[in-house]
Amino acid sequence: MLKKINAIALVVATISLSACFEPETNLSGLSENTYRASGANALPMTFPAGASTIAKPRNEFNKPTPPTQFTPPSTWVVYMASPAWTSGGLKITRRLASDAAAATHVKTFLRANLLTEQVKLIWLQYDPNPAQEMMADKPVSKGNLIPHYIQPFGPDVDYFIHSPAQRFTATSRSMRFDQWVKPYLPFAQQAGDDFVTDDQFHLSQGFADINSDYWDDWSRIWFIVNPDGVVVDAYFSNLGSGKTYGSIRPINSLMHHLGLDSEKLIIPKLVEHSYISKYTPPYWDQLVENSLDLFLNPHGN
């Protein structure tokens, strides 16, 4: 009898200890109450380079296969858009490491909660790549799309796509950066072929002048897109605010739009860091300009 009592006590103690040490799954505390709608205008997802947007899927990142024209998947998609070679602000390697970490947090959430078939994660590089002749043997070429700063295997995303925007003048293959993002901004209204705002903060930061520092904020942008290809949330880092959005906003947006139960989700503790990222001319333009300066003014006078 005593043995039976001891055995029962052991089972009860084991169950009690298991309950005490059961890990908390949602360490971030995200829920429907923490969701912050972006207010972005619900429009089809567009790309700065339009039909010239190219892509490589995850399983070809480290293969010498050329990129192909990008066709968006017919699933939910989280696009993390960021520049690769822009060098204003935080050092490129540190900025890309921060972007890669943010993407990894989203991918980890998708994997842990069995959402990888329902939701795809795509890295969208929206600044031009350096000309190959300026890069010698660095792996930026038709055969290897991923910038060498995030080589050799690339970021933890389903696709890497390149769709370069222009800073000042649109071309037949690439739209201006402001023309690309303005339609989604919740504080902007269309006026003819352009967009305007009466938001005093953004006006004071330079929204109305495409040559202002405001439009030099080339930083991380999140687009959450439904299976119909419509943007349901868009979170724009910086643009006068100095805030860089990490993985919290896109994860919380998915929770809201997919109707996920926060008490049943596995979400790690998420930490975000802001950084400054400003547009700079393409690498080869900077190289030519610096070489001319050195040639014309070798003594720095």
Biggest sheet record: 7 strands, mixed
User: Topology as H/E string?
Assistant: HEEEEHEEHEEHEEHEH
How many domain regions? Answer: 1
Structural class call reads: alpha+beta
Number of helices: 6
User: What order do the strands of the largest sheet run in, or round the barrel if closed?
Assistant: 2-1-6-5-3-9-10
Helix content: 10-25%
**Rg estimate, integer Å:** 23 Å
Q: Mean pLDDT, nearest integer?
A: 85
Shape: globular
Number of strands: 11
The fraction of residues in strands falls at 5-15%
Give the low-pLDDT segments: 1-22, 133-142, 291-295
Please give a structural write-up.
With 301 residues, this protein is α+β, with helices and mostly antiparallel strands. It has one domain. Helix content is 25%, strand content 15%. It is built from six helices and eleven strands. A hairpin with a 5-residue loop joins strand 9 and strand 10. The N terminus is likely disordered.
Question: Care to give the gist of this entry?
Answer:
The chain has 301 residues and is an alpha+beta fold.
Layout of strands and helices, then pairs:
Layout: H1 2-20, E1 54-57, E2 68-69, E3 76-82, E4 88-89, H2 92-112, E5 119-125, E6 159-162, H3 177-181, E7 189-191, E8 194-196, H4 200-205, E9 221-225, E10 231-236, H5 248-257, E11 277-278, H6 283-296
Parallel strand pairs: 3-5, 5-6
Antiparallel strand pairs: 1-2, 1-6, 3-9, 4-11, 7-8, 9-10
